[in-house]
Amino acid sequence: NTGFQAAESMCRSTPWSSRHKYVHPHARQLVAIWRFYLILLLAELSAAKSLLDDSPKTVCETEACKERAKMMLESMNQTEDPCTDFYEYAWGNWKKNHKIPDDQTKIGNFHILDDKVEMDVKTVNETEKFNDLLKLLKEDGFTKWPLRNKEESPYKNYTQLLNISTFVPFVSFSVYQDAKNVNSNVIYLDQIAFDWVGRNELINQTTEDSRKIVEAYKTLIASTSKVFRPNLTEDEAKQLSEDIVQFEATLAEHSKAEEDRRNFSSMYNEMNISSLSKKYPKIKWLKLFNSVFALANITLNESERVIVMEPDYIQDIEKILETANISTLYNFVFWTSIRTYGAVASKKLDKLFFDFYKEASGVKKDEPLWKKCLTKISDLITHAIGRLYVDKMFDPKAKKTMDTLVDVLNSTFGEMLQNNTWMDNSTRKEAMEKLQKMVAKIGYPSWILNETYLNGLYEYVPPVFMNYSFLNVLHGLHLNSDIQELLSLRKPYKKEDEWYTGAAVVNAFYNPMTNDITFPAGILQPPFFQDDVPSSINMGAIGMVIGHEITHGFDDGGSQFDADGRLRNWWSESAEQQFLERAQCFIDQYSNVTVKEVNLTLNGRNTQGENIADNSGLRAAYLAFRKFNDTDEVLPGLNLTGDQLFFLSNAMVWCENIRIERLRNDVQYDPHSPAKYRGNLPIGKFLPSIFFTCVLLQSWHAYEHTVR
């Protein structure tokens, strides 16, 4: 499921100085294409600009327009040349006036809006009971932690450990919609994620930045172990942390990087438990699955289907488990459970966890307790929170306006597909069918207003009493979430009822397996969306977001799914080859952008889907604005045309200040490029220089250099 936010430039390589030097064929093709489009676009926009210059401007005088004009004026750095750095021109003063809060890794309009939504739903319980954590861990099969050696282990081998514990952190289990049989759900078996210390840092611990994070992680493990077992010596605690981190690093070494996990067909390996057991016989899969599904009173047999997403990883796991020390396995499993609940179990553990986060992320102080607790439960009660938010904060008029905007963007994107010159007719027909079947979900699902339905989502939450700790509540919510997911295996998948996100969320989404785009209530407010402002403002912001999400249906990921959400190749061989060549151009360009602050290049492969969506989404929004805008209404006090306001409104989406530690992490792992590049690079391709009287030939000459 592709989110718009978060934590993205067209083919820049080493500048050339001689026409006799080799030019990559992708670059030659791109230069030719863009020269052709430049001539057409120049003709259209010059004509449009001359018409606009001669026509009277209507100044919007609504309160919303006055507020927006004030916001823009306060944010702009009008001393900056927009031809040189449009992002700095649009929001240079915003960056100066918005320092990163001490408890945050970055600040931007996404995060400011997130904070606003969180304040609207703030309700927390600050009770603390460390013994509750010990009790929960004991129920999961862990009577003591950490173990000093294998002689202390209550389990003789990894098979016993897997069969007794319902918590299995070596592999990832999930139940979700079947990518090829979209009306049913299926079990997915996958590699684990590395959320605490990144995969790159675990594998390569030789760089200064990697060592810093890994050492902080080891310190956290060692310090936590002494909270649970105070008589542990410093050397024993240190050795324990070394063993756990080394084991986690071994898992990372046998996993795949996310940029190598973009071909979903190669990750759809259908088996049943019987064939799974024959292929990977050292793990008792039927017992393992049944120990997990016992939570929902479901018993599986060997004919149960399983989609294995990374067969090589599963094969390697067998060998890793067989050779690992049982005490290391036990300690690792216990540790991963502590990571989930430890910070809310005691103030001492909370401080240890923050000390690690401070070192890894660069924050200066901890979040308020209410915010920390809300963050932990919000995903578990997302629709309950959404109901509260919608009742008090959502204007129903926004949905009507959004319906119109989505229709306009859908129509414009359809024209882009029809005018596409490299897509053959059979592929274009499939693409148009997919666009026509794409469903827009706006604001909130209607069923959250049905209290019976809403209560059913939390049916398995145990009774909560006033003397319960927050930990008890959190565990109960996790329990309900797990049971609901497991039960879905025996239920049909109804995509009309599926909402990937809650209403009180500042983001937008495309889901390829349901072929729908979602715009929660949380994002339908300034600076993304606002009633009573010129169309340039909404089109540049939420219009681009809509175009972005529509594009995801046709990017390198979404293009692998058909109109009904099935994983199916609907592309002709020639169209697929043409698409891959164009996608490679984005990959090459972004991969050659160096983020100087952290001395890393962008990961063009991992970000290609978001880069395609950013560029095509902006193009669709601008074309829609030019086609459907019947007035050139402007803002008071700003000597800017509707076109200029469109691009400024778009830039407002991306204004952000970010800490170096967070930037380094985002460049390595986030499928989105950093905000600065998402703000500057797509806009550069749509020639804002025309509207800001830049010297066009110089601008294009520089662009040609980046392409070559």
Largest β-sheet summary = 4 strands, mixed
Summed over residues and divided by their number, the pLDDT gives a mean of: 85
CATH architecture of the largest domain: 3-Layer(aba) Sandwich
Q: Regions with pLDDT < 50 over 5+ consecutive residues? A: 2-54, 123-128, 695-708
Fraction of residues in helices?
40-55%
How many E strands? 12
Oligomer: single chain
Q: What is the assigned CATH homologous superfamily of the largest domain?
A: Collagenase (Catalytic Domain)
Distance between the termini: 34 Å
What is the CATH topology of the largest domain? Collagenase (Catalytic Domain)
How many H/I helices? 27
Number of domains: 2
Strand content is 5-15%
Sequence of strands across the biggest β-sheet: 1-8-9-7
Shape call? globular
**Rg on CA atoms, Å:** 27 Å
CATH class of the largest domain: Alpha Beta
- Helical/strand content category: alpha+beta
Your description of this structure?
Mean pLDDT is 85; it is low at 2-54, 123-128 and 695-708. It is built from 27 helices and 12 strands. It has a 4-stranded mixed β-sheet, covered by helices on one side. The protein has a 4-stranded mixed β-sheet with strand order 3-4-6-5. Strands 2-12 form a two-stranded antiparallel sheet. It has helices at 25-54, 63-75, 86-97, 109-120, 130-139, 158-164, 199-203, 208-228, 234-253, 273-279, 285-293, 311-323, 326-341, 347-361, 369-378, 382-393, 397-418, 425-437, 451-456, 470-487, 535-552, 573-591, 608-628, 642-654, 660-669, 675-685, 696-707, and strands at 2-3, 106-108, 172-177, 185-190, 269-272, 305-308, 439-443, 509-511, 516-520, 594-595, 600-601, 656-658. A hairpin with a 4-residue loop joins strand 10 (594-595) and strand 11 (600-601). It folds into 2 domains: 2-14 and 63-119 and 395-445 and 499-707, Collagenase (Catalytic Domain) (3-Layer(aba) Sandwich); 143-345, Neutral endopeptidase, domain 2 (Orthogonal Bundle). By secondary structure, the chain is α+β, with helices and mostly antiparallel strands.
